Every structure is written in C-alpha cells, then in structure tokens.
Amino acid sequence: MDAYNLETFKALDRYRYLRSNFVAAYHGGSQQHRKRDLGTLKRRGLLSAPEQQKNSANYRYTPRVYELSPKGKAALAAHGITPTHWVGERQFWHQLMVADVVMSIEIACKKRGLRFRHRKDIIGTAPLTFPTAISHQFPKHFDHYSGVLQPDELFAINETHFILEADRQNEPITRPTLATSSYLRKILQYRAVLKSGAYKELIPNMLVLNITTSPTHADNIMAFMRDELAMSSSSMMFMGIDILGSRDTYPQPLIELLDLPFRRVGHDNFIISQEV
User: Is 92 inside a domain boundary?
Assistant: First the structure.
C-alpha cells in the first residue's frame, strides 16, 4: 500500500465514517482525482459505503461516505496498525457529525501547521469515560445519579485538549429525573468532572465543545444554564451549525471552526485560533 492510501486508511480508522470531499481536502490536490481514488479502493473491496447514507433525498448528488471494510482493516493491520474496535453500532448520522467536526479541525490544523492529536494519539485504547456522581433539586423532589460520562470525542491542538459533544437534538434539555439522558444531566456531569479534576487521570486540561445542529437550540441550552442552574463556565463552549443536521445537503470541511467564536455562559467568547 502506498503512503497516500495508508494515510486514507488511518484517517478512516480514526473517524469510522468520512465523506469523500473531506478525504480530498485532507490530502489536497484535485478533488476529482481524490474521489476517483476512493472509488477504486471501494471496487477493490477495501472500503465500504454505509447503506444509511442512502436515507437522503439528494443521495445521488452528495459526496459518498466511506468506512473501512474488513479487507481494509486487514490491510491496515498488515502495516502494523491495530484497527479501532468500534463498540456497538452508534447511530450513523451522529457518528458522521462527530467525524465532520473533528476532521474539519484536523484539516484546518494541517493547513496552519498546528499540532493536532486525535484521541488515539492521546489516550491510546483507554476508554474515553469519566465516573460521575451528581445531584439536582427538581421542583418536587431531590434526585441523585451515579454513572459514567462518555464524551463523543477527544482531540488536542498543541497542548490544549478538547472534548466534543455533538448534539443532533435527539435529547431534551431537561427531564423530570436524572435517570434518563438530558442536557441537564450532561451539564451537571461535566461540572462535576471539571470541579473535581477527575479528567486529569486521562488528560492534563479539558475544554468542552458543545456543537449542536441549531443555533436556537444552543441559545436555549445556554439560557437554561444561566437562568435555571444559575451556572457559568469558562470551560464549556457552545455553537450551533445548521448544516451538520441536514441529511439532504452536505458540509464542506468547516476549517473556519478555528476562527469562529464559541459562546460561553458568563464569560467572553472563545476563539480556538487565538487561545491555542
């Protein structure tokens, strides 16, 4: 396998799913040639095109999404790289959103000469989880919850470590109890992890990027933190990006994420390129 294809396989192993236009941007050069290369790898049985992407009105006119096939994983292993073992079947569109965000940042870092590290480079095969114990006073009862917080992804730019929460608005901001998933529970869990420093068993510092598919939803989460929880945070940041929630249109690599302002409750905006 040549170096170009090996880098493609390694990127697919990092993210599980990647759009062909993102792979092309990662390598640079002619997008048409890069996409043709991916098609050749698929015909050779080294890549697969997940069926879930066909659940789109404009499937025929959007860049294909690829993942490593069993044959492709074997080829990667033959080069001394142990393929990622993806536990369970995470929702396709959610995992693709995670890949869209983090691969965009990796591409942007590559263009600017910034040091980017993916989760595997930082913690290897260790689980990306944090034990938490939280409490909350609901209107009619006081509730406790003990459980594991599992972020969507981890990466670092230079020496700054970022946790990603990718939200497709599949869970409500609050629920009547902490027993089921909500943004309330997630916020309380992150507050506990940040306050206790429990993350330091894995990483030396931690900023949390909350990226949702609606600017309005991001506004509502921040308002809930401020008004209902009376909470501010310099470490939790929010942004809403509509196109990440669409199945009928597709994003180009969002390299501008390094320069766009992430909003914070009770603190000034955070611009990644100015802080790393």
Answer: no
Angle between helix 92-112 and 3-15 (nearest 10): 130
Cα angle 99, 104, 108; round to 5: 150
258, 144: one domain: yes
| pLDDT tens-digit map of 65-113 | 999 999 999 999 999 999 998 866 568 999 999 999 999 999 999 999 9
CA angle 230, 234, 240 (to 5 degrees): 85
List the beta bridge partners of residue 117: 156
C-alpha triplet 248, 168, 251: angle, nearest 5°? 40
Residue 133: phi and psi, rounded to 5, are -140, 120
Residues 189 and 150: their CA atoms lie apart, in Å, by 10
Q: Is the pTM of this model over 0.85?
A: yes
178 and 255 together in one domain: yes
Q: Measured between alpha carbons, how far is 149 from 125 in angstroms, rounded to an integer? A: 17
CATH number at residue 49: 1.10.10.10
